[in-house]
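FORM 12-B: Structure-to-Sequence Request
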């Protein structure tokens, strides 16, 4: 019973993390409306999230913030390369590629992490995982509109950026699993977001000075919420989930992110609900159900 409860908690955490990530479009649209560039938005997401988490941990003082020097490379690799590269490359991918292509290439990441976990952590690639991943990824493809018969032109820069997003996302998941073996989810998130924000600063500076409109109370509140809802909460939850469930399972559950983003588009931005949207959401839901259908019988079925 204890193992079942642990797994159920991990499932909830991974799903909740994806839902939080799925709200990022709300914040980015608002920031873009005030003149904030894509790289600058990525900097705010990582930097503000890091500062908020640091403030909370300094106030609570429940654990040391120190990490062993020999583990520094892991946080630099996963935060400075994995997270920073994913978010920066995704901004480029959206600019260079059709949005449909950018989204699908990003969500190759869970496939990368599931395969990587088989080699790094000896997790079995079961039939259930394969079916769930196929359903979830197919949902993203349907959602993107790539099956509509439209021809797409992808530049060399767009192709490279898209590949980086997928592998960077996979690297983040795999590296986080390694980090939480040694440190708490809070410490893991703190250092990952620190190096994530460091990695985005040079690119954010290349977009010029920040717009003066950000000095008003509303933009400040939006930026703070952006860091809290899209960084502190989801990265902490996802890191904690990796202590309770397998990487492959957490990877499938992260597809709650595009499903959430789609629902936000339908509800808040009044985007049209099409047959393909319904099919896509259904496939993602089916993948989550399949991935959890064997929880009571064990993870490795």
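FORM 12-B RESPONSE
SEQUENCE OUT:
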């Amino acid at each position: 019973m204890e193992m079942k409860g642990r797994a159920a908690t991990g499932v909830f955490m991974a799903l909740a993390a994806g839902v939080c990530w799925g709200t990022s479009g709300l914040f980015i649209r608002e920031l873009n409306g005030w003149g904030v560039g894509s790289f600058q938005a990525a900097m705010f997401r990582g930097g503000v999230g890091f500062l908020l988490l640091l403030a909370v941990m300094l106030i609570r003082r429940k654990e040391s913030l120190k990490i062993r020097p020999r583990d520094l490379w892991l946080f630099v690799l996963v935060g400075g390369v994995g997270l920073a590269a994913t978010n920066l490359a995704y901004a480029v991918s959206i600019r260079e590629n059709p949005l449909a292509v950018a989204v699908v290439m990003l969500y190759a990441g869970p496939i990368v992490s599931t395969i990587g976990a088989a080699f790094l952590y000896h997790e079995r690639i079961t039939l259930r995982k394969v079916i769930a991943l196929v359903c979830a990824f197919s949902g993203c493809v349907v959602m993107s509109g790539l099956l509509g018969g439209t021809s797409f032109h992808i530049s060399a820069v767009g192709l490279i950026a898209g590949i980086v997003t997928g592998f960077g996302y996979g690297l983040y998941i795999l590296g986080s699993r390694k980090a939480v073996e040694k440190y708490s989810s809070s410490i893991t998130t703190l250092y990952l977001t620190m190096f994530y924000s460091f990695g985005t600063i040079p690119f954010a500076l290349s977009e010029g000075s920040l717009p003066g409109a950000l000095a008003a109370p509303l933009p400040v509140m939006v930026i703070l919420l952006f860091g809290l809802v899209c960084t502190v909460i989801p990265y902490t939850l996802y890191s904690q989930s990796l202590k309770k469930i397998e990487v492959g399972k957490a990877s499938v559950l992260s597809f709650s992110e595009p499903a959430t983003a789609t629902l936000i588009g339908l509800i808040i931005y009044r985007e049209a609900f099409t047959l393909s949207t319904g099919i896509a959401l259904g496939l993602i839901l089916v993948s989550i159900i399949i991935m959890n259908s064997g929880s009571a019988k064990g993870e490795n079925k």
